[in-house]
Amino acid sequence: MKVYLIGVGMGNPETLTVRALEAIQACPVLVGARRLLEPWAESHECVPLITAADIAEFIGKTPEGPVAVLLSGDTGFYSGARNLWPLLGSYEVETVPGISSLTYFCAKIQTTWQDAKLVSAHGRAHNLAGEIQRSVKTFALTGGATRVEDVCRELVERGLGEVQLSVGERLSYSDERIVTGTAAELAGETFADLSVLLAENPDPVVRPWNGSGLPDGAFLRGDVPMTKEEVRALALSKLRLEEHHVVWDVGAGTGSVSVECALSCPAGRVYAVEKKDAALALLAENKARFHAVNLEIVAGTAPEALENLPAPDRVFLGGTSGSLEEILQVVFHKNPAARVVCTAVTLETVGEAAKCFARLGSPDMVQISVTRTRPAGRYHLMDAQNPVWIFSGEGLA
């Protein structure tokens, strides 16, 4: 028996390809979402089914074909075709591509899409604001748990209110609506559940080059302590950051680690916790210097300043002021599986950290000694830096 998997575009029959229309006309039975079946209700037997398993089961009980499965958009763009192909191996399957909302919408607003980050946040929770934060151009399917107006409000909260958005509602239908404006302008509006958006962010969060260890001279420092680049590079590798992570940097100082984490987690959020006024001022300057809009500065003393922060995936402890154990208690209360990295230079902190990290999963304790060269006339001398201990481990979730 022959089965057609047909991409029918946004739903309006006027956007069908000629081949898709021929395949529909050849099939007495059509299966798919109710919205897609509506135009064919009078001329075909229409069976409203959504999941791949239900559709495959129905086809298996159908004595004669051909049968057509109508799928929204294009069969290769976030389509149900992917789940159906392995279930229909015993049938003769013809897949007919359609016009996706991506190509239709970009044609409508007269822009390209080959340079866009493509995201599906339709019917699922997704860090769409984070995707926009790190990309020059982002196209997204929205709806359900991720609504356009919520994304606009989150962009404003992240300091990205000036990002330009184009939003398309009910594309291809007679009540189609396309709206363009900044995130701040659109945050107060309400959009249909069946919407797409295209965001253009001229200043995304990007790392100047691959890999951590920005040179110390790239940061403004003053008299505030700073984790040096060699130690910072190793500590960041121990953090094992992923692009979407929520990170706490406790005792952030100048923010060298905070900035590096922000650049490594372009779709995530970084919270730099610092209590000293001079350091807070430098933090703000270094944040602006690297355009790290996903970095939020938190003035206060840990562990109290941590109570209202979102649960972290990763934590860097650059300064704990003798409260290491109390800080770890807050961390693992928020997220029992968090990964923590701590640096220590005094013997007292080394002893406390060794005791605390020995209780964690996969504890790792290393000591790094860095010796730099410095010029002395026409010669170069060795200039030893303070040895630093780096402790890392994960909660026992």
Brief overview:
This protein is an alpha/beta fold and 397 residues long.
CATH superfamily of the largest domain: Vaccinia Virus protein VP39
Radius of gyration over all CA atoms, rounded: 27 Å
Using DSSP, what is the number of strands? 19
What share of residues is helical? 25-40%
Helix count, DSSP H or I runs of 4 or more residues: 13
Low-confidence stretches: none
Tally of distinct domains: 3
Tertiary shape: elongated
CATH architecture of the largest domain: 3-Layer(aba) Sandwich
Task: For this entry, give a set of tags.
single chain, 397 residues, alpha/beta, Cobalt-precorrin-4 Transmethylase, domain 1, Rossmann fold, seven-stranded mixed β-sheet, five-stranded parallel β-sheet, 13 helices
Describe the secondary structure blueprint for this structure:
Elements: E1 2-7, H1 18-25, E2 29-32, H2 34-37, E3 45-48, H3 52-60, E4 67-71, H4 81-84, E5 92-96, H5 101-108, E6 117-120, H6 128-134, E7 137-142, H7 148-157, E8 164-169, E9 177-182, H8 183-186, E10 195-200, H9 229-239, E11 246-250, H10 256-264, E12 269-274, H11 277-289, E13 295-299, E14 314-317, H12 324-334, E15 339-344, H13 347-357, E16 361-368, E17 371-376, E18 379-384, E19 388-394
Helix pairs in contact: 6-7
